[in-house]
Amino acid sequence: VGCDRSKNLVDICGEKNLEAFVCDALSVPMRSGSCDACISIAVIHHFSTVERRLATIRELARLLRPGGTALIYVWAMEQEYKNQKSKYLKEKSDSKDKEEEINTGMAQRPLSDHLPDGSSQDSACCDRLLSDLKDKGCGAKPIADTTLPIHTNRTSFHSQDLLVPWHLKGGCKKKGESVVTGLFPVGSKESQELSPVFHRYYHVFCEGELEAVCRSLDCVRVQRSYYDQGNWCVVLEKL
């Protein structure tokens, strides 16, 4: 069974006769202990606070039966690890992503959402985790309270909290119509008009950060923690 915030993506699953539904990772409408295994791929790095990221992992653990396992992937701050560049950096085109660089600059930080309810113990864990990570450091530059940097695609990260440009290729289309891409040069006015840009929030994780968040929950055990092509990954077991 799959779930996603995007109704359009869930509709695609339905067209392929796959089981999927729309929901929020902070509140999944399934029975506690009903899953043998869960995966969360490229989701948790979109939550903007430690508390919300912790709550998402707690919700994932709630779905697992005792002895069940979960796999979590998040984007890594370290896109070059052990002298090896990630696939993300390697795919930088010869044109140096001129289309992407058009949109570099600063943007207003999104308004904060209400935080999910959590115990004071979890809050204390978050405070300790934040303090530990600040002491450890990972080369990220601090950012102003009111702005977020816009990332230049296919380059190394310079901040843990940022906005990543996403280009809607081919523009909008009506139902039943097809869109022909590649008609205009990359970076041209026509190309930009056909490819609107959306900025998505990311919190990229430093080494050890995801594992530390998981270890702050007493209902799971970290079986494995590893790096995979620009992502930090953990495998959890429900106790």
TrEMBL record:
GO BP, one example? tRNA methylation
Span of domain Methyltransferase type:
1-72
| Region annotation (Disordered) ranges | 86-119
Biased composition (Basic and acidic residues) is annotated at 86-101
- InterPro entries, A to Z: AlkB_tRNA_MeTrf/Diox, Methyltransf_11, SAM-dependent_MTases_sf
Cross-referenced Pfam families, in alphabetical order? Methyltransf_11
Assigned keywords, A-Z:
Methyltransferase, Transferase
Question: Looking at the record's lineage, which domain of life comes first?
Answer: Eukaryota
- UniProt GO MF annotations: S-adenosylmethionine-dependent methyltransferase activity; tRNA (5-carboxymethyluridine(34)-5-O)-methyltransferase activity; tRNA binding
A Gene Ontology term for the protein's cellular component: cytoplasm
> What protein does this entry describe?
ALKB8 protein
Native organism is Eolophus roseicapilla
Gene expressing this chain: Alkbh8
